[in-house]
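Weekly puzzle thread! Below is a chain. First person to post its structure in token form gets bragging rights.
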Amino acid sequence: MNITLEQAEKVIAAAKKKATDIDTKMNISVVDSGANQVAFARMDGAWLGSADIALKKAKTARFFDMPTGEIGKLSQPGEPLYGIEHSNGGLISFPGGVLLKNKNGDIIGAVGVSGSTVDNDHTVATAGAEAL
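Winning reply:
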């Protein structure tokens, strides 16, 4: 199962609304179940460097089927995934990437958000995911 463009645009719209509500500017990337980018939005004034981070957060969440913040916990020194961020052409292992699921709970993609604190990134990504 894959996310559709219509669903991806819905995720982006909800994430943009949440970002506006908390007064921040974000880059928002949505990937399908194969980690291919389906949709992207860079809010006016959002950091240029965060565009790549948003995409990598979405891909990281999908590659390992867990929120990027959870991967971050497992990739600390002494933990089982230490150093994983150096694999797959570079991963992002801090909050802001979450899975996207359909009504049946099947993973259909992921959303990655970057442009503020990691807490804000995660909040905005979660708002996007909840739009489905």
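Puzzle host: Confirmed. Bonus trivia for everyone else. The chain has four helices and four strands.
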